[in-house]
Write a structure and sequence with these properties.
Elements: E1 3-7, H1 12-23, E2 27-32, E3 43-47, H2 61-73, E4 78-81, H3 105-125, H4 127-130, E5 137-141, H5 157-180, E6 185-189, H6 214-227, E7 236-237, E8 243-244
């Protein structure tokens, strides 16, 4: 039986995706630093390394060898990477910049680490599997605010820049992937505004109907994955499957 890999599965969207596929009878490989807060016989837990500090990626080859071995055993051809970060509360509060004067090295570095470096870490680590798996679909969660041509409001300097870089990275990787695996689809995906801790401080003025539950978002993203094909590889897709501009 094939399985679905969810990277960053403990996030609101990642957890909802895991539960969605479990309800569909699929086996789910949960890859996260944190265990699931529910149990299911079809749920396989894998612990991700802590990369919150700068680290040498080469130190984690054993980790990726183990992950790839598990992917091969379960014939995984569908993967979601749900890693992302927007703000931090508490004493060391970090929020998206409303103006350039609010930018800081700490905010920029953390935003790039969690929105660009970690996704790239997984993309590179899983690359040997991605290049050899027929009909592979890899959906990297990103954000519409990473679209440079769509930026009409300004603000959110670090987050916009990190997501724009992520979109470019995945686009570039898709070109390389196509040379060795013409049946693969590697895309970035905007999940829409989901009711979660990530979006909580920014929900007040949303238009009616724009905010979705994690379960609703998971259903939409799963539908996009179901219809995804190799000709779309490299695109930035919206939660409804439409193509967004870079």
């Amino acid at each position: 039986m094939s399985a679905v890999l969810i990277i960053g599965a403990s996030s609101a969207i990642g957890s909802a995706l895991a539960q969605h596929y479990l309800q569909q009878g699929e086996q789910v490989i949960w890859l996260s630093r944190y265990a699931a807060d529910f149990s299911d016989p079809k749920l396989l837990l894998m612990t991700a390394p802590d990369l919150t500090d700068a680290t040498d990626w080469a130190r984690h080859q054993d980790f990726f060898s183990s992950v790839i071995n598990t992917l091969q055993q379960h014939q995984v051809s569908l993967m979601f990477n749900c890693i992302g970060w927007l703000h931090q509360g508490g004493e060391a509060k970090l929020l998206p910049e409303k103006s350039l004067s609010q930018s800081s090295a700490l905010l920029l570095r953390k935003t790039l680490l969690l929105n660009l470096e970690l996704p790239v870490f997984y993309l590179q680590g899983l690359w040997p599997y991605l290049t050899k798996t027929p009909q592979l679909r890899y959906l990297q969660l990103s954000a519409k605010v990473g679209s440079i041509s769509d930026n009409q409001l300004g603000g959110w300097y670090s987050y916009r820049s990190a997501k724009a870089a992520l979109n470019q990275w995945v686009k570039t990787a898709s070109i390389e992937l196509e040379r060795s695996n013409k049946t693969a689809a590697l895309v970035t995906l905007h999940p829409g505004t989901t009711d979660s801790a990530l979006s909580a401080p920014f929900q007040r003025n949303l238009p009616q109907g724009q905010l979705k539950t994690p379960a609703q978002t998971a259903a939409y993203l799963a539908a996009v994955a179901q219809q995804l094909h190799s000709e779309q590889s490299g695109m930035l897709l919206n939660w409804d499957g439409s193509v967004l501009s870079f």
